[in-house]
Structure formats: C-alpha cells, structure tokens
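Project outcomes to date are best conveyed with an example. Our students and postdoctoral researchers have been running inverse folding experiments weekly, and each run begins with a structure described purely in tokens. The record below, which covers 167 residues, was selected by the lab manager from last quarter's runs and is presented without edits.
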C-alpha cells in the first residue's frame, strides 16, 4: 500500500506541477491509466494467481486515483484484470475493439477532467498511450505484465510517464 501512496505522490508532483508551470488550466487535466492485462496463464485467455493478485493491486491504485471509468477489450484476461476495479468502485466495464483517432478523441471529450483506466494488450497499451498524445516507449516484453502508463491531458499539454506496478 505504501508503494502506491508513494507512486501517487510522485505522479501528482511530477505531472501536475509541470502542467501548472506551463499553464493555468481552467479545469483539471484528464488522466488515463493504461495497463496491459495482468499475468496470463500460458496461452489460455485467463489470469494466473499472480495475475489475479496484480489485478487486485491495480484496483487499490485505481481507488486511490479516483478512477471514474474503466475500459477493456473483450478478452477474459483484460476483463478479469479490470474486474476488481469495476467491482470495488461500482463502475460499468466499457469494452472497446478498435483503436482509432475518433475513439481517442471521444475518450478525451467524454471523460474531461476525470481519471480513466484502460486495460489492453502488449501490442496495444503503448499505442493507446501514444494515441492519447503521450510520447512513450511502446515496446513491452512478452512476459512483462507490470507496465503502467499515465497520460495526463490538459488544455495545452500532454504529459506521459511509464511506471511499474504490483510485486
């Protein structure tokens, strides 16, 4: 838990102070938390016990960040990663299928000033972070399940950071 508090503190200092230095926003920035599904059970569309624990940790972080919307692809491993967050925050799970500029624009418009969790796959999370305007290294290893991208979009700037979460 302390690790999440520290991450939250660092994020708020790094991202909000940098944005505030560049502009006085009329409203809060929109924050996107983008993660790959938690640890996959081999080639199955399921999570390992470690993956289930990682999904639980993600829900704790989402609660601290006050996530107000959750998006996932329609695969079991992504939905099961999002499920603890959806349940603990009593939110609806929104599914998405295609990544395109209209979807990115709709997300930014619909959730302006809020915090949104998006669960994807190793070949999509970097694209999602970039599509939202963040400049990030998109490469995620086959066995890497702990990458977490934070993209903060304000009126004039976009800031992105890549972190690790879970054990």
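After processing, the design step wrote out the following sequence:
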């Amino acid at each position: 838990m302390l690790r999440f508090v520290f991450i939250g503190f660092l994020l708020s200092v790094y991202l909000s102070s940098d944005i505030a230095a560049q502009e006085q926003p009329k409203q809060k920035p929109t924050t996107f938390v983008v993660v790959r599904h938690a640890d996959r059970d081999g080639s199955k569309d399921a999570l390992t016990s470690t993956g289930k624990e990682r999904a639980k940790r993600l829900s704790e972080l989402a609660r601290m960040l006050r996530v107000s919307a959750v998006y996932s692809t329609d695969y079991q491993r992504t939905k099961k990663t999002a499920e603890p967050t959806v349940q603990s925050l009593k939110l609806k799970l929104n599914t998405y299928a295609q990544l395109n500029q209209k979807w990115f624009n709709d997300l930014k418009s619909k959730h302006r000033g809020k915090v949104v969790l998006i669960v994807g796959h190793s070949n999509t999370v970097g694209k999602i972070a970039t599509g939202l305007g963040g400049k990030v290294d998109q490469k995620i290893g086959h066995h890497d399940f702990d990458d977490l991208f934070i993209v903060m979009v304000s009126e004039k700037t976009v800031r992105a950071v890549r972190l690790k979460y879970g054990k």
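Residues 150 and 161 are 5 Å apart (CA to CA). The first helix runs from residue 2 to 22. The training component of this project remains on track.
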